[in-house]
Amino acid sequence: MIRYYLDFEKPIQELELKIEELKRLNSGQDLNISAELDKLEQKAAEMRYEIFSRLTPWQKTQIARHPDRPYTLDYIKMLTDDFIELHGDRRYSDDPAIVGGIGSISGTNVVIIGHQKGRGTKERINRNFGQPHPEGYRKALRLMKLAERFNKPLLTFVDTPGAFPGIGAEERGQAEAIAVNLMEMSRLKIPVISIVIGEGGSGGALAISVADRLYMFEHSVYSVISPEGCAAILWKKNGDLGSADFSRAAEALKLTAQDLLRFKIVDDIIPEPLGGVHRDPKAAAEKLKEVVLDAIKELRGKSIEKLIEERYRKIRRIGRITGAPPVSNDNHKHPPGPSTS
């Protein structure tokens, strides 16, 4: 099996290649090297644990972008018993950077929306590397409203470097499309669950992640800007930026799942198999299924009024000026929205 190794995984790569070579030698031959293989595999596991127990924010960013990491359609395939993909925003076109449709998870019907980066050069170009145009967000909004109309829980998968910043996207209302999604998601009359499965970048991620429950995989990241973008704005003066600058930016951004749980931006962290989700996607999907079904069960036990009120309070609690008193929701009633009767 050919694996892609990140720079900090090179020690593991050398050991695992040696293990694979010994397994090939042992295949079909009368060689008693099982004991040696066991020792090497144990050493590789220990080395993997040591490396992955002290990852830096920049290293976590690299794992979140790992080319072998499962994408939205991979999770849909592993989670759903059946899935029907729906296309188009009914205004302009279909954006393949956003996928969505109707599926069933262990008998529970849900509407699923997510970013899709694509595998291989051709598909990545077709899906614009997971950077949606406004029609992608309008397609997502159409499916959100479909979920609300038929009273089905909404599940979203976040995995994008950000919304596409091209001239055409701006001409067709990129900022407006994102803003409308933020507003509409905040008052959907159904349970909304969002999972950051890889990279959650800027408004492109926010546009499908205003939720009652927001979860992150252990090595995913969620931030207002990429470390490269942050470093370019703050520190690039003369010459090119290097990995040290990206590492510095990643540390400053506090973009890891652990940071965001501490800041109470996300509700919980979904653990990953040792070495990352791509090492054992099926195990990760089983854990994800358990988390999603538990969340749906909990949220369905709440009235629509309580669901929307708690979502509003959750949003209001995000961010605080140092030294300022906490926001009192009793003194800041949210503006009247659509009737919840």
List the helices and strands and how they pair.
Elements: H1 10-26, H2 34-52, H3 57-64, H4 72-79, E1 82-85, E2 98-105, E3 108-115, H5 120-126, H6 134-149, E4 154-160, H7 167-171, H8 174-186, E5 192-201, H9 202-206, E6 213-217, E7 221-223, H10 227-234, H11 243-253, H12 257-262, E8 268-270, H13 281-300, H14 304-316
Parallel strand pairs: 3-4, 4-5, 5-6, 5-7, 6-8
Antiparallel strand pairs: 1-2, 2-3
Secondary-structure element order, as H and E? HHHHEEEHHEHHEHEEHHHEHH
Total count of domains: 2
| Largest sheet data | 8 strands, mixed
User: What's the total helix number?
Assistant: 14
Number of strands: 8
Quickly give the structural class: alpha/beta
| CATH level-two architecture of the largest domain | Alpha-Beta Complex
CATH topology of the largest domain: 2-enoyl-CoA Hydratase, Chain A, domain 1
CATH superfamily of the largest domain: 2-enoyl-CoA Hydratase, Chain A, domain 1
Shape: globular
Distance between the termini: 56 Å
- Into which percent range does the helicity of residues fall? 40-55%
Rg over alpha carbons = 22 Å
Oligomer: single chain
Low-confidence spans = 336-341
* Mean model confidence by pLDDT: 89
Assigned CATH class of the largest domain:
Alpha Beta
